[in-house]
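Tutorial, part two.
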Amino acid sequence: MKPLQRRPLYLAIRAVTVAGGMTLAATPALAGFSEVTTNNPFAAITSGTTGVSLTLTDLDSDGDLDALVWHRAHDDVFPFYSSDISLYENTGTRTEAVFTQVQDFSGYGYGGDNFDANPFTYDWGGSSYGHPVSAGDLNQDGLDDFVGGNANVDSLGFLHGISVNDGYGQATDLDNRYDESSGNSMFYGTNIMPYGDAYGYGSPLLLDLDNDTDTDIITSSNGFLFAFQNNGVDMSNVLQLAQLQGPAHPFVGGATLALGNAYLGAPMAAGDLDNDGDLDILLGVAYGPENLRYFINTGSTSTAQFEEKTFADLDVSTTIAAAPATGDIDGDGDDDVVVVEQQASGPATFRLFLNDGAVTRTVPISSSSSGGGIGGALLGVFAGAAMLRRRKLKKS
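Running the prediction step on this input gives:
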């Protein structure tokens, strides 16, 4: 197994080719989404029956998106059945994904291209917290962190499963699930779930709200939305979070915006849904039947202002529960959407909606911006990465 350095693709990078000091980059254009009904690469994913969420990230630094499936229960069989986190390596390419499940134990011939075994086996440790999960780099060490919420009616508190990839294919500290009252938590004393301890409905979303290159946090606590600006960590590795309140609250309606019972603890995802260069938010469903909801950023990359809108091509209704994820699945430089729908029985359904809205134009790009965090792995085609933040689908 080769050493792993995190070079995620969950921010869809707009640059598509480099020629001297000029780059072809996608011009913001109204997105149109088309569901893939044949040759959907996510149809190969069979893990997860209840409490399913999805994170897309480049775990093996090969330039394409791999899939982590988080679940409370699944129908997998040996050698894939021992983990609450299923890993599907993308053994295809950046433009044509092929997802291959990686075995939980090595030695059985079911590994991917760059994994002999699932490095997340046994790490989550509590299957009741498989849903929802969001991912991002909270402490700016260049490695993946995962934060899990709680959509269980009978479980209290908002528990955190923090993982840092150690650079050699091993996930560490995922079983350290602490709430903000624990001195061992990165969230100690931050109160990022104001209603979580009392009601037990929690959902996190990790994203860059203000385009300052660090990972901020939105939480849904008992159906209300809260936003926190990340100001780094202190000497004890505790996040210094500033709650955005009043006029600074990024959602129209602010802290009084009540989501409703169907969305208590529902997973969230961030992506550029309208191709205007800033992050929008998708809200999944925890207790259906109900529709996915979309909050479009009508502000800017540095000052987000989210207003609820509808998308005719992305009008997804689900009967039980659904978790959204975003990422550039077809390598065309815009954010596509995956919706994981829980079924009455059997594995969840992974629906893929491709973003058809981006177009290209020629713009000058400084040569110092070429490559960004992807570097030589993509032969320099992602110029402009310094201009556009990486997106987690997380980022869950």
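The longest strand covers residues 224-233. In part three we will examine how such features are distributed along the chain.
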